[in-house]
Write a structure and sequence with these properties.
Elements (H helix, E strand, L loop, with lengths): L2 H7 L8 H5 L4 H8 L4 H18 L2 H4 L42 E11 L3 E8 L5 E8 L3 H15 L9 E6 L3 E7 L6 H5 L8 H20 L2 E2 L8 E3 L7 E3 L6 E2 L18 H4 L6 H17 L9 H9 L15 H8 L12 H6 L6 H7 L6 H18 L2 H14 L6
Antiparallel strand pairs: 1-2, 2-3, 3-5, 4-5, 6-9, 7-8
Pfam families: Pkinase
GO molecular function: ATP binding; protein serine/threonine kinase activity
Family: Belongs to the protein kinase superfamily. CAMK Ser/Thr protein kinase family.
């Protein structure tokens, strides 16, 4: 169903019995609504289900839906701006089974969804239900690596939010641990928006960043630090809409205020100053990464990227960045203020996830829908960035990053920020 039809039908209920489609909600759907969706998202969420129901009606029945015209300003112009659907299964507590995975799932070896330091992610199907899922195969060489994967399982067991990928099952063998997760098919966020057929406006950036901040806010409310927020770890739910989910909790840690946590891993461009300095990390560490992602989404440039890792990390430590005049030509002052309040060296001065949700840039979407229709210049620049980093993305390992951090600290002693 086209976007114009979608918006036209949104509130045209007329003589149609709304209770007919309300009955199609599951307990899971209603629990999601009750969990605190904000008003504009609640309207869009309900609208999505209404459209799904209308789509199932016969043509004759559909023509009986009449009513007042919808105010177009109420809804952003981007496609599918309702919240992502919940995972197609109830939230569950998972523990690794020590039985053959093949007894329960059929893996599609030729359908590789992604890969990295851990191994590969394949599409798979549950034998008993036919449910399509994603299988993340992780090679483990020792007890430490095994415990790290079990930590990931423990973290994901605590996550029940539409913007965070959900865990369905897990299996353990002598050499591997396999996580069975919710499947989404939209690909990485930045790969999606550089498509020449995609029109990226600031409103789109707002929709993306609001969802990212909602996911991070939920993580922090559970006292969990992601610690590896970057474009590769943000997936689109499908190839047409603007709904996203945060993935990869392999480096996530439970935050305990009395335990001073330090980490020695991450992707250089997205590291917060306290990680580079091997200082204590906390919630603001994730927010720095949110700032970097926002900057890149708006401009197509990586704010701290140098000619080598040492230069990149020096740029981070000295907060050596600015708003490129050409790249930010069509970007509003509100958006720049949002970035500025995140890329602050002093941890306690950064916006929290909750603070981001209250920031003017992420609010009043109905007004912004009228204004932010200018295409951002970030798309072309992001194409160049992704092309230059394609091979690097495939072969980047966190262990290598940790070694680079160690060498950097040995040769560049700097006071804690």
């Amino acid at each position: 169903m086209g976007t114009s039809v979608y918006r036209t039908l949104l509130l045209r209920t007329g003589g149609f019995s709304v209770s007919d489609y309300i009955q199609k909600f599951t307990v899971r759907d209603l629990a999601l609504i009750a969990s605190g969706l904000r008003l504009y998202k609640l309207v869009l969420f309900l609208s999505f289900y209404f459209i799904r129901f209308v789509d199932e009606m016969s043509d004759d029945s559909r023509q009986t839906i009449e009513g007042p015209a919808v105010d177009e300003a109420l809804f952003p112009s981007t496609n599918n701006d309702c919240p992502p659907l919940p995972a197609p299964f109830e939230h569950r507590i998972v523990s690794a089974k020590q039985v053959p995975m093949g007894s329960y799932y059929a893996v599609k070896p030729n359908e590789v969804l992604g890969g990295g330091r851990f191994g590969q992610v394949h599409k798979c199907a549950e034998l008993s239900s036919g449910l399509i899922l994603a299988a993340k195969f992780i090679k483990v060489k020792g007890m430490r690596e095994r415990e790290e994967v079990k930590n990931e399982i423990g973290v994901m067991n605590q996550l029940n939010h539409v913007n965070l990928i959900q865990l369905y099952d897990a299996f353990e063998s002598r050499t591997n641990l396999t996580l069975i997760m919710e499947y989404v098919d939209g690909g990485e966020l930045f790969d999606r928006i550089v498509d020449e057929n995609y029109l990226l406006t600031e409103l789109d950036a707002i929709v993306f960043m609001r969802q990212i901040c909602e996911g991070v806010q939920y993580l922090h409310q559970q006292y969990i630090l992601h610690l590896d927020l970057k474009p590769e770890n943000i997936l689109c739910v499908n190839s047409t809409g603007n709904q996203i989910k945060i993935i990869d909790f392999g480096l996530a840690r439970k935050y305990r205020p009395r335990e001073k946590l330090k980490v020695n891993f991450g992707t250089p461009e997205f590291l917060a100053p306290e990680v580079v300095n091997y200082d204590f990390v906390s919630f603001p560490t994730d927010m720095w990464s949110v700032g970097v992602i926002t900057y890149m989404l708006l401009s197509g440039l990586s704010p701290f990227l140098g000619d080598n890792d040492a230069e990149t990390m020096n740029n981070i430590l000295h907060a050596n960045w600015d708003f490129d005049s050409e790249a930010f030509e069509n970007v509003t002052e509100e958006a720049k203020d949002f970035v500025t309040r995140l890329l602050i060296p002093t941890k306690c001065s950064r916006l929290s996830a909750t603070g981001c949700m209250k920031h003017a840039w992420l609010n009043n979407l109905e007004d912004k829908a009228k204004l932010h229709q200018v295409r951002l210049k970030s798309q072309v620049k992001l194409q160049r960035y992704l092309a230059a980093h394609k091979q690097w993305k495939k072969h980047f390992y966190v262990v290598a990053a940790a070694n680079r951090l160690k060498r950097f600290r040995q040769h560049h002693p700097i006071n804690t920020v």
